[in-house]
Amino acid sequence: MMFDGFENARKALGSEMSGFVGAFGFDEFEDRMCPMCKTHESDIKETGVVGCVNCFKVFRDTISRAAYKIHGRLEHLGRVPQKIVSEAEKEREIQELRVKMQECAAKEDFEGANAYKRKIEQIKGEN
Prior knowledge:
- The chain has helices at about 5-15, 15-25, 40-45, 55-60, 60-70, 80-105, 110-125.
- It is an all-alpha fold.
- The protein folds into two domains: about 5-70, no CATH class; about 80-125.
- The longest helix has 25 residues, at about 80-105.
- The protein is elongated, with a radius of gyration of 24 Å.
- The chain starts with a helix and ends with a helix.
């Protein structure tokens, strides 16, 4: 069988997998199925692996509950590469300038709106 290696690895993990599976809290659930890949909720319980991207939508509550039990939170707190941080900061600044530009335009302060527009173009040109 093609999946013998995976099955052997899963059995070898034994107690490590049981800790992961226990986090899912599967005592009482309806065995839902992903309409895209046909993965069942019980399959995720057994393997700890989802079948496709859509599974994260279909089983969101189950996966979130397991992640919270394992990690104690649902948001990522790790490090982010500096390039991504600086890009996010630039995007945030551009959004703030757009709001100010729209406020100026609403007040018919077109010179002020144009100044904000130039600042936005300058920031975008730095990328």
